[in-house]
Amino acid sequence: LAKNGPIYDVVWNPNSVEFCAVYGFMPAKATVFNLKCDPVFDFGTGPRNAAYYSPPGHILVLAGFGNLRGQMEVWDVKNYKLISKPVASDSTYFAWCPDGEHIVTATCAPRLRVGNGYKIWHYSGSVLHSHEVPSSEEIWQVSWQPFPEGAFPARAVRYQAVAGELPSAEPRPAQAYRPPALRNKPLTASKLHEDEPPQNMKPQSGSSEKPLSKTALKNQRKHEAKKAAKQEAKAESNQESTQPSAPQNAPRSAGPVVTSGDPEVDKKIKNLKKKLKAIEQLKEQAAAGKQLEKNQLEKIQKETALLQELEDLELGL
Fold it and tell me: Name one GO biological process term (predicted).
């Protein structure tokens, strides 16, 4: 799998041609696989530990229950588009209605004996009905009325939320605690981890290539970074050749140009000066806070050797 850690849930799509796995240390990943166990779509990372396909198999809910807040992601698995992101806090039970349109979430005893009740949702995120029992009572079980398979034909997925009973299903989450010494200071953005966005793992249309592995993707990114660095260096050298040289840009050639009479030596000196100028520009970018690639850092480390080589060539003139 693409991330280390436990496997929380694995569920088959009712269409019998794919399944979804939720796995990895939090924030967990969720990926749809085909019958050959090739990844089809990666939903990225998020607070989730369960997956639920609708009875027709056209909608997938990724949810985080138990010790998580109850956040849900409702996906159209035909087009892999996010439909809604409702929140069902303190839920201990989740079930699709046989019609593939509605969902029930419930807080039941003995898992939780406080705040027992249930909610009926439309998959677009609207709460159609909510029922809470008095604090002196408990709910032990909630279930949909059973229907024979195929009693409800699959309907087209809708992204517009239907009219619900509650205008706001969940209260806004409380703000994070801040120590008194930091309460009058501006907020600073800090993350414990970087969230991974969803990614289509299918090969491009007209291509028979298999999806790349994690190692292959990493090598591909390195290759692209090196290629971009080469193009950047080439563009800088072209720009240098078109602009007149200024004294501050070329302190070694401030005086009259001296040639050795050997075209090969002159060419080496010119190339060394270009490399040294590119290193100076990389050092300026690093000082400005830009994150340099590995190959760019290696260029900077070669500066001393290049200066020595240039000095040797110039002394031989």
Answer: regulation of translation
CA distance 87 to 81: 18
Cα 197 from Cα 80, distance rounded (Å): 13
List b or e across 127-141, with b for residues whose CB sees 16 or more CB atoms inside 10 angstroms: beeeeeeeeeeebee
Instruction: For residues 138 and 279, state if they share a domain.
Output: no
Greatest Cα pair distance in the chain: 101
Residue 239 lies in a domain: no
Q: What are phi and psi of 239, to 5 degrees?
A: -65, -35
Quickly tell me which residue has 């939320």 as its tokens: 161
Domain count, the chain: 2
131 in a structural domain? yes
Asked if residues 119 and 155 have their Cβ atoms less than 8 Å apart, the reply is no
Residues 170 and 290 placed together within one structural domain of the fold: no
Nearest to 44 by CA among 27, 63, 68, 59: 27
- How confident is residue 208, by pLDDT bands cut at 50, 70 and 90? very low
Q: Kindly state whether residues 138 and 277 are assigned to the same domain.
A: no
Hey, what are 108's tokens?
């039941």
d(CA 96, CA 152): 13
Kindly state whether residues 164 and 267 are assigned to the same domain: no
Confidence of residue 189 (pLDDT cuts 50, 70, 90): low
Residue 242 inside a domain? The answer is: no
CA distance 214 to 226: 19
Answer whether residue 138 is part of any domain. Answer: yes
Q: Residue 1 and residue 214: Cα distance in Å, rounded?
A: 9
H-run or E-run covering 32: strand 28-34
pLDDT tens profile 209-254: 455 566 777 677 777 777 777 777 777 666 666 555 444 444 444 4
